[in-house]
């Protein structure tokens, strides 16, 4: 069923035509009107596009930040595959003979322990 308010009222249209002059359709510069509307709408439309881009970025950040945090936690928390060798075996295998004694006693250079910990090959040169 259609609403009676959706149909145009013929008596109202006739009353309006009698009071107001007819629109000057032939005299309108449609190109200039189009350009003026375009110019006036450009800035508000640009603001809406920027707001839409920001909303999209916020939605992606809402997904990406927790995913990145979860990945970082997983890297820290999840155990790495470990060998069955003891700490002493790994230390003796990775350092030249006598180097461990120098590191423990303090006779080695100050940075030798740090370099040995990170696996620098130049430890034996110090």
Layout of helices and strands:
Blueprint: H1 10-19, H2 30-77, H3 87-94, H4 99-105, H5 112-118
Your description of this structure?
This protein has 2 domains: 29-80; 83-126, no CATH class. Helix content is 63%, strand content 0%. It has helices at residues 10-19, 30-77, 87-94, 99-105, 112-118.
Output the keywords.
126 residues, mainly alpha, 0% strand
Terminal CA distance: 96 Å
Rounded radius of gyration (Å)? 40 Å
Question: What structural category characterises the helix and strand content?
Answer: mainly alpha
The number of E-state strands comes to 0
Low-confidence stretches: none
The biggest sheet amounts to: none
Helix content: 55-70%
Order of helices and strands: HHHHH
């Amino acid at each position: 069923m259609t609403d009676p308010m959706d149909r145009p009222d013929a008596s109202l249209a006739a009353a309006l035509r009698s009071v107001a002059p007819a629109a000057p359709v032939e005299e309108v510069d449609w190109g200039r009107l189009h350009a003026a509307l375009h110019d006036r709408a450009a800035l508000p439309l640009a603001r809406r596009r920027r707001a839409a881009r920001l909303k999209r970025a916020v939605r992606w950040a809402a997904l990406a930040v927790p995913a990145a945090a979860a990945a970082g936690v997983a890297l820290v928390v999840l155990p790495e595959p470990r060998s069955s060798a003891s700490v002493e075996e790994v230390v003796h295998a990775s350092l030249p003979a006598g180097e461990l004694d120098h590191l423990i006693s303090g006779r080695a250079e100050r940075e030798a322990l740090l370099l040995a910990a990170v696996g620098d090959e130049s430890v034996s040169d110090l």
